């Protein structure tokens, strides 16, 4: 074990000096480190330094913490806190930067990207390699190589010429000459004197390179002002025709700052408009009801079997267009509703040979639930889904089209971005809609884009814009502001409380950062954490920037509870379904609000929807009335239905329409001959035979009252209806067939699982167990052992003969000593363990295993060897 009084010599020693709460903070922030659980702290440190893990951690830093890491990458290794402060705040100092720097350093320490005390801060090697400047990967700081790095291939004679031209005494070797140049360029007064003598054109060249990129091109015969810089080492050659501005020179010209514009504080989310909270909630509730109606209309349109599934999966462009026309919506919005129904488990493919999309059995259960609960299910599915409808119509990495319900639409960052955008809205006063650009600026500060490729494909920015529009469509927001039920969906407190809490935390972070060095902030942050071995680890989610970043998205059980609470808040705001319509003389019926389901279903068969909105207009036509008669209704049934549900008398034109269609309905009978037509009135059959439009049906007379054809019954029905007749289909027994829509359902299906963005954050129980196992494994790996006569190198298992193993175990049972063993399990995995033997019998040893913190029994033949622990 390392002595807490001595500085750590490695990241493993630094982790070993942490308490359990601090390790919990690390593992929450970087859950990939415990997948699987490391055997000890040395393995944890090794895993924390791998390139993939470091890149993932860097991508989750806010802009100021990342700027701090970038400054450490161009500082000395190790660097003091004062050196880092100079790089961040400059020679003149910046009180805001100085106040926030402890927080940033503490965040880097928490995530094991920086270790060491304030006198010897070290950026982990992999992070330094990623962030340090190089010709292939320029640093975001715009700084170039140091004088030592730039002159590494230069001849000793040339280096001495640079020293002499700079006015320095010659040295006896190149190393001391480079050190002299470095000290000169880092000395503010001497550099100011040297640059004061430079030609104006030379200073202009330096000003163009100072903020990066630090590389420039020169000709084989450079101009006099360039030659002046080259002779004094203010520009150094890196390749033929290429020069670079040394880092020390650039820092002098920048007055010591590593970044042109440090951003210690996040940009504020600016209000775009302010509305009364009641107006916001009412607008959002109206949108929520429209969302339910749209999903119902979509799945009703696909009730008898929806579009076919493409061979590669998903909807075809033609089917998406047809669906958009049926919903009277633009295609991108139609794609959103299709994807939302799929994410909620209401829609899936049926898995048949001729595979088609259809509603699932869960859709029928969903329809039976109250409207607020149905909305809560949709909202929860939207908030947690990784499928992103905004990508529909784009191209994937292989230049293949992305289709609705098809593969390639999952984006693991989507749930976090949606949750973060809504959290930013929740932090605003109630009724306040944000300016969209300020939301994007805030998100870019919290997760800055690293590298030109990321900036070209700003996925998080697009996800944020889609979130704002989709939240409005779904009724989570109203007029751009977060509604009360939208706030409950996040599990968030009222806006005033959120703002006050944020202010308090920010003030606490600032006061903690006002101390000298980064250690004060770390101590202030850890003061509220339990540190005793018996204390439970904190359950709340930790973030490296308190007061700036919101808690992580809720766990699935927590999200379900929050969605139910949101539904309860929404329920009183939704309109009550009506049981009546208003019949008009122009063969229309007006539904002044949402209708109860039985009424809406029956009216949807009897009439066609002409327009939707606050009031729905239905139009009665001969075809729609015939559709109701085909479904088994009679004229008297239709009159009674309308009289029961209309607040106005049945208009005479509508009564005549129903009676006229009913009088002709079923006058003709169609059956299978392939098909036949029979009618008691032979004059009607004579008219059909004489009609030129019937020539395509191939009719022939079998009897005065019967016509036959080779066409199938369905084609014959459609042909006669197109001619203006109203035939009815009949069965083989001569009974009229009643045609009702057949609801096609898929087999039971589960909603698509979200694609996680790496390992999920561990819960408190898993963290406690993982830390206990890591501590125990580290104890087994680092506890001093007595000499066994054979040298045991670090990491190797002890080796003793079976007789020695048995004798040592029996002796430990008598004395109560703790021993160190090597053990190979049934899978062949070798581990080290520290155990206190209790009894040895029957070829087994029963012992208290300090590694597992429990009593276990081990077969002696699997113990590779045993060693006694040292007295200390």
UniProtKB/TrEMBL annotation:
UniProt keyword Nucleotide-binding present: yes
Regions of compositional bias (Low complexity) in chain numbering: 510-533
Keywords of the record: ATP-binding, Helicase, Hydrolase, Nucleotide-binding
Biased composition regions of type Pro residues, renumbered to the chain: 749-762
Stretch list, region Disordered: 132-152, 510-553, 743-762
KW DNA-binding (keyword) present: no
Stretch forming the signal peptide: none
Identification of the protein by name: Helicase-associated domain-containing protein
Originating species: Streptomyces hyaluromycini
